[in-house]
Amino acid sequence: MDLTLPVTLIPSNQVLDLAAKTGVLLLAGLLAYVLTRTLLVRAAHAFARHTRGGFDDMLMEAGVFSRAALLAPAPVLFWGLEIFAGLKGVLDNAIYAYIAVSVVMILTKVLDALSQLYQTFDVSNRRPIKGYVQLVKLFIYILGAISVVAVLLGQSPWGLISGIGAMTAVLMLVFRDTILSLVASIQISANDLLHTGDWIEMPAMGADGSVVDIALNTVKIQNWDMTITAIPTYKFMDTPFKNWESMAQSGGRRVKRAIMIDQSSIRFADDALKERLKKVQHLAPYIEQRQKEIDEANARSDADPASPLNGRRMTNIGLFRRYALEYLRSHPKIRQDMTLLVRQLQPQADDGLPLEIYCFTNETAWALHEDIKSDIMDHLLAALPEFHLRAYQRNALVDARDRD
């Protein structure tokens, strides 16, 4: 007895005819998109040039008109379904799904333009709406996804939503971490927080290294000791972390180091010290100009030169601070277009007077940066005795002759 079920095969000529018609229709839709996009964008540019308002420019920058051209193929495709017999049942639902996706993409770009317009108002600094815009986008994405699935399945979206609602509790319980990671992935991508190859630091998770893989559930980080730390993706939304990539892209890496000055070595600069320091190229112009200003100020105030406490005087630490600043300004490895400071900090108990060096090197690679930073600190520490200054060392014995 033959139990083989009969199989209905579509003749090969009908398959080729169906494929050819579909190809022609898709090509016509692509041509409609390209022409519409070109004409629409050019017309929008021309209109924006003749208007004073800035919102049309924001629509252009957000790409709303380019996205609007995505709707152009839909009428062409529907028109083609009426011409080519046999395609209506095949592509009808697919076109509706395409329209739903296009509308979602257009709406998100319109929201970007509206958000940019809101930022032009002063109230945006006090009441930012970026989080609300992202929430609305998420809602639009969810509705769009439900609409596409419902159209492709030939069902009502409301019936699909009610079915999803009944399973929400079970899904949240079973796939809690996955759902949290999915939402976190969307937030990370939307805010441009993390990329493969970025150097990140997350002390709470013991991670300090380069991102080697970003998956749905985990982000793998290769630490500088060559170990691997796997962090759940959703942790990046509730755990503080530092991304150093913007530092690398800026071309400058910060130096923030303090030299602890023994406060007992701070004194007024006498004539002998000033004369000797005038031989220093970085200091000579400053000392002459500064001395002239001080002499004029003391003359106006009729200061008695019998005591250095009368009137204004230069100090050895002030001269050293100026020397350090000029040294950094002339250093070829220091960025002059970024913050550059040499400043005193609040002294701590038994720690001396901190003189902080704050600048940026033009090398961001770790080894090169550390080498430049060490060279600078070596030089400044070695220069201290030239100013009759000493670096502070707790519990260190200092020769009494050094205090004279």
From TrEMBL:
One Pfam family linked to the record: MS_channel_2nd
SUPFAM superfamilies xref list: Sm-like ribonucleoproteins
The keyword Flavoprotein appears for this protein: no
Record localization: Membrane
Residues of the Mechanosensitive ion channel MscS domain: 177-245
Residues passing through the membrane, by range: 20-41, 62-81, 93-111, 132-152, 158-175
Protein's GO biological process: cellular response to osmotic stress
Keyword annotations from UniProtKB, A to Z: Membrane, Transmembrane, Transmembrane helix
GO cellular component: plasma membrane
Single GO molecular function: mechanosensitive monoatomic ion channel activity
Matching PANTHER family: MINICONDUCTANCE MECHANOSENSITIVE CHANNEL YBDG
Protein name: Mechanosensitive ion channel protein MscS
Originating species: Pseudodesulfovibrio indicus
